[in-house]
Amino acid sequence: MISTRLLVSIIGTLALASALLAPHATYADDQRPTAAVRYGDLNLDTRAGVDTLFRRIQVAAQEVCQEYEPRGTFAASAAHQLCMRNAISDAVRNVGSPALAAYYSERGDHRPTI
Fold it and tell me: Is the pTM for the entire model greater than 0.70?
């Protein structure tokens, strides 16, 4: 008879493996998940306004990219990092603010931080 400890270990291992190996959905460009980021209340001519908008963009990117978050580990997956980087850079470009683009460019590392 299999001991309870061994059975729990086997179940835990199978659950972890299925979470790590589960396929992620892929989307056509026009079907990717999106999130609206409102910024009409911000003055993008100020550093504070640009900083606030950038944080809002990061939060929205985190929501959109959550399906790519790794499960069972604290290490970021390559898919999640790529999703975040693309979502943030696309949002910065779509806003069309030179001040926001400069702020994003100044960061240099282009790694998402929340």
Answer: no
